[in-house]
């Protein structure tokens, strides 16, 4: 009886694997791991005309992408804003504070896709909702996709207005010192599990 039970279990697993492969779910599950060493999310702004770039040290991405099935592809990125670093310790501390990210009150910035479509040649238009500091804005992110060394690689840059998210309150609302335009750049590398 145990032998039949093992055969039945093996048959069930094989059947389940075949069903998952046929629906494309298996392919999506195989790419679930973010390779943190090869991935990055940065923000570039200008202070008195000089570019300043900061890096988010902690973030996670949940991407289910198939170029042949864009209608069912999705992407969600969650960024730990308290992990932001921009050069010296004093500036980094200030940016995490109430006037800027207010990381204690709003610990995460989140992008959730609503649709993924073909864009300009070699790019995809990823429409979605970006939430930073409690404010949600509809955005479209132009992103590239490629296979690289056994991994999926997604790259792009999203221009935003920092004042749309109340980033830089109080004396920092003056955009002549720190520009309103900010570029969020990302490189997300998904490795096989």
User: Shape, please?
Assistant: globular
Total beta-strand segments: 11
Q: Strand-and-helix sequence, N→C? A: HHEEEEEEHEEEEE
CA-to-CA gap between the ends?
A: 34 Å
CATH topology annotation of the largest domain: Lipocalin
The low-confidence parts are 1-31
The biggest beta sheet, please? 11 strands, antiparallel
- Can you name the CATH architecture of the largest domain? Beta Barrel
When the domains are counted, the total is 2
Mean pLDDT across all residues, rounded?
84
Radius of gyration, whole Å: 21 Å
The tally of helices reads 3
Annotated CATH homologous superfamily of the largest domain: Lipid/polyisoprenoid-binding, YceI-like
The level of helicity is 10-25%
Structural class: alpha+beta
Instruction: Supply the CATH class of the largest domain.
Output: Mainly Beta
Q: Which percent band covers the strand fraction? A: over 45%
Question: How does this model look, in words?
Answer:
The protein has helices at 2-23, 25-30, 89-96; strands spanning 33-34, 40-47, 50-56, 59-64, 74-80, 84-85, 108-118, 123-132, 135-148, 151-161, 181-191. The protein is an alpha+beta fold. It folds into 2 domains: 1-30; 32-191, Lipocalin (Beta Barrel). Strands 1, 2, 3, 4, 5, 6, 7, 8, 9, 10 and 11 form an 11-stranded antiparallel beta sheet that branches. The chain starts with a helix and ends with a strand.
């Amino acid at each position: 009886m145990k032998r039949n039970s093992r055969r039945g279990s093996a048959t069930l697993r094989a059947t389940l694997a075949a069903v998952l492969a046929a629906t494309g779910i298996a392919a999506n599950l195989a790419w679930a791991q973010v390779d943190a060493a090869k991935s990055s999310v940065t923000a570039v702004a200008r202070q008195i005309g000089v570019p300043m770039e900061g890096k988010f040290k902690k973030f996670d991405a949940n991407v289910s992408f198939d170029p042949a099935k864009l209608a069912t592809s999705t992407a969600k990125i969650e960024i730990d804003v308290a992990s932001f670093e921009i050069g010296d310790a004093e500036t980094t501390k200030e940016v995490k504070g109430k006037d800027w990210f207010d990381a204690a009150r709003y610990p995460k910035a989140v992008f959730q896709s609503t649709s993924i479509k073909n864009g300009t040649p070699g790019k995809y238009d990823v429409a979605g909702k970006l939430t930073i500091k409690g404010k949600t804005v509809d955005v479209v992110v132009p992103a590239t996709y490629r296979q690289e060394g056994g991994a999926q690689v997604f790259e792009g840059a999203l221009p935003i207005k920092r004042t749309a998210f109340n980033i830089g309150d109080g004396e920092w609302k003056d955009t002549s010192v720190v520009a309103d335009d900010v570029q969020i750049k990302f490189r997300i590398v998904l490795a096989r599990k």
